[in-house]
Amino acid sequence: MASGSSPNTGAAPRDGLVALGIAALVAATVLTAHLVPAATRHPATASSIDERCAEWSDGCRICQRTPEGVACSTPGIACVPTPTSCLRKIGS
């Protein structure tokens, strides 16, 4: 290199623009995630199930009435829920 100039003289401004673009994309993604309402699916709660039902399931999780309140299992990652059904009545 006889001229003594660096081959990447234009890289610094371009790198700054790339970094700014990435930061803008991340900010837009985070804002979108917080501003757009998520489609929530609430698990079957005790109020939506017959009071005489002690244990029920939607095929993904099993819920029970306990002295402390309703307790439900964690659904599997690829579970497809079905209509909620009572598995065991109180006193059974």
Summarize the structure.
The protein is of the alpha+beta class and 92 residues long.
Q: What does this molecule look like?
A:
The chain has 92 residues and is α+β, with helices and mostly antiparallel strands. The chain has a domain at 46-89. The protein is 27% helix and 21% strand. It has a four-stranded antiparallel sheet with strand order 3-2-1-4, with no helix packed on it. The mean pLDDT is 80.
Q: What class would the helix/strand composition place it in? A: alpha+beta
**Mean pLDDT across all residues, rounded?**
80
Helix tally equals 1
Shape: rod-shaped
Helix content: 25-40%
Question: Key terms for this structure?
Answer:
rod-shaped; alpha+beta; 27% helix; 4-stranded antiparallel sheet; 92 residues; 1 helix
